[in-house]
């Protein structure tokens, strides 16, 4: 599960600058992972478009901290619509 934001609205409280980015293909996205455990922490857009996007891996968050956050399910396989 991912939480999507405008990059200017995200602040890393710890570990900022310590993840390892992986950039492939068209070089428009950097997927970051922890250099110790290998878990993907977030991805960020690299393009010049505004607003810059970032997605945070919510599975690494304390479930109690995000229990009241609404979840929208998206059909990215065929209809490209939200299912709620």
Properties at a glance:
mainly beta; Metal Binding Protein, Guanine Nucleotide Exchange Factor, Chain A; about 35% strand; two-stranded antiparallel sheet; about 80 residues; 7 strands; globular; single chain; 5-stranded antiparallel beta sheet
Helix content: under 10%
The span between the termini is 16 Å
Number of separate structural domains:
1
Mean model confidence by pLDDT = 90
CATH class: Mainly Beta
Count of helices? 1
Number of strands: 7
Strand fraction:
25-35%
In the CATH hierarchy, the architecture is Beta Complex
Order of helices and strands: EEEEEHEE
The strand order across the widest sheet is: 1-5-4-3-2
Give the overall shape: globular
Biggest sheet architecture: 5 strands, antiparallel
Rg from C-alpha positions?
A: 14 Å
* Low-confidence residue ranges: none
Q: Could you please say which CATH topology applies here? A: Metal Binding Protein, Guanine Nucleotide Exchange Factor, Chain A
Structural class, judged by helices and strands?
mainly beta
What's a quick, concise take on this entry?
With 84 residues, the chain is mainly beta.
Topology (elements, then pairings):
Layout: E1 2-6, E2 20-23, E3 29-33, E4 40-45, E5 53-57, H1 63-66, E6 74-75, E7 81-82
Antiparallel strand pairs: 1-5, 2-3, 3-4, 4-5, 6-7
